[in-house]
Request: fold
Amino acid sequence: QVQLVESGGDLVQAGGSLRLSCAATGVGFSFVVMGWYRQAPGAQRELVATIRSDGSTNYAASVEGRFTISRDNAKNAVFLQMNSLKPEDTAVYYCNADRWDDIASTYRDYWGQGTQVTVSS
Reply:
C-alpha cells in the first residue's frame, strides 16, 4: 500500500526558512507528478508547487521566487525548500503524488497526512 509521509514542518519567524520532505513507501512504480499543496484554516486547499518526472516545475504565484521544489526519482521523494517565509504561508502542507494506472487507463492520486508550518510575525 502506498503511503506518503511528510516531515519538516515547524514554527518559524517571518523571513526564515524551512525544508519539507515527503517520502513514498510501498511504491513499485514511478510517479508522473509530485507536488505540495497547502490549506490554511478556513480556506480551501491550494496548489503550492508541482514537479514532473522530467524535472519541469510549476509554482503558485504567491510562492514563486521564494520556494523551490525538487525530487529524487530513485527514492520517490519530493522536497520543498521554503525561504523568506511570510505569516500568510502558515498552513498545513500536504504532499501529493500521481501515477498513471495502465490497467485502468487513469491517474491514481495519493496524499500525505500533512505537516504544519507556522510563520510568526
